[in-house]
């Protein structure tokens, strides 16, 4: 199975330009003839940073029938692969359409033949989403697999010819509204209980880097962000399962209205309590990251308990991310397979890692 994450920098409201940008990246990439799945970021073509329903309204798309879905169907047929793309959804009932509309932050997944396989609606909204979107109804309206938790708002089920997949969007991997206990791990707990071999998350994940910092070494990932993502899948690590679980994290990059995005799209492998990383895109790199899940991961690291320990001791999320011990573990995460990598004593840990945001 070969996975591709299309990481790029869409601009708010410039839909046609953003589509052209994505097309150009795909054309310049060495897309394999046997690509299985292409995954795009959250709100891929509309952009993300809308401040109100009125602002995003011109870019809302009817459920699985707007420009994003049409693009996904065309690309799926062209490359003979599955495609997942994020879009701003509006439901339009046949009766009283203006009075009954509901907006969601969604992804649509289509088959290589262009068939609609699933429409997932983001369950845990970030502050920006809450200005215009409703929480996804999750299992109350979606067709879930028999092994999915009936109490979970997330999706886990068979997607066409793909394996069983747990799907989410960005903030879904965080504690609900940042008020639920860190240790609840709502999203990754479903991934574990559903026995999904694949987890797929489309993202518009922010970072604390300044615009200047973001453009320094653009091909290098934001290590703090990658390490934070890994920590949010601690239940899968702790389970120590013999069978591998693959985690696809397809983020966007760039800036919108002064907001910086972390990029760093990556594909993880979790097996026997060990987290391996196939490859990661740079924090400001527009690229199509392609990973063959049958190959050996490029990086391997042991999951650190420093982050969880800091939280258990009452440290805030923000302070835990900046904790020195966690940063050291984060650097170790990206050591090549079979090697150990430590921080150069002459190099600033603060400058190397920075901070992580939580959308």
Automatic annotation (TrEMBL):
Pfam families: CN_hydrolase (PF00795). CDD domains: ScNTA1_like. Transmembrane segments: none annotated. GO terms for biological process: protein catabolic process. It comes from the Eukaryota. Residues 1-295 form the CN hydrolase domain. GO terms for molecular function: protein-N-terminal asparagine amidohydrolase activity; protein-N-terminal glutamine amidohydrolase activity. PANTHER family: PROTEIN N-TERMINAL AMIDASE (PTHR11750). This is CN hydrolase domain-containing protein. It comes from Alternaria tenuissima.
């Amino acid at each position: 199975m070969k996975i591709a994450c299309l990481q790029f920098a869409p601009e708010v409201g410039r839909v046609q330009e953003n589509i052209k940008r994505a097309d150009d990246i795909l054309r310049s990439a060495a897309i394999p003839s046997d690509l299985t799945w292409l995954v795009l970021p959250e709100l891929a073509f509309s952009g993300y940073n809308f401040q109100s329903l009125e602002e995003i309204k011109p870019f809302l798309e009817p459920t699985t029938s707007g420009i994003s879905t049409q693009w996904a169907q065309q690309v799926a047929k062209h490359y003979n692969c599955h495609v997942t793309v994020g879009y701003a959804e509006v439901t339009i009932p046949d009766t009283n359409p203006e009075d009954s509309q509901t907006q969601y932050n969604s992804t649509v997944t289509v088959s290589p033949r262009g068939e609609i396989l699933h429409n997932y609606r983001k369950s845990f909204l970030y502050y920006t989403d809450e200005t215009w979107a409703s929480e996804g109804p999750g299992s109350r309206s979606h067709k879930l697999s028999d092994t999915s938790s009936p109490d979970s708002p997330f999706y886990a089920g068979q997607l066409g010819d793909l394996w069983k997949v747990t799907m989410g969007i960005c903030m879904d991997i965080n504690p609900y509204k940042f008020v639920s206990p860190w240790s609840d791990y709502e999203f990754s707990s479903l991934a574990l209980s559903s026995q999904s071999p694949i987890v797929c998350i489309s993202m518009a994940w922010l970072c604390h880097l300044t615009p200047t910092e973001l453009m320094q070494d653009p091909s290098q990932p934001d290590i703090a962000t990658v390490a934070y993502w890994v920590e949010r899948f601690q239940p899968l690590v702790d389970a120590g399962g013999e069978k591998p679980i693959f985690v696809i994290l397809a983020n966007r990059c760039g800036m919108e209205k002064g907001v910086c995005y972390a990029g760093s799209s990556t594909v993880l492998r979790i097996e026997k309590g060990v987290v391996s990383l196939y490859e990661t895109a740079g924090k400001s790199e527009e690229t199509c990251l392609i990973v063959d899940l049958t190959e050996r991961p490029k990086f391997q690291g042991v999951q650190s308990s420093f982050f969880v320990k800091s939280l258990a001791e009452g440290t805030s999320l923000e302070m835990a991310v900046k904790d020195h011990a966690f940063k050291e573990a984060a650097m170790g995460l990206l050591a090549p397979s079979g090697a150990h990598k430590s921080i150069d004593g002459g190099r600033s840990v603060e400058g190397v890692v920075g901070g992580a945001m939580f959308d």
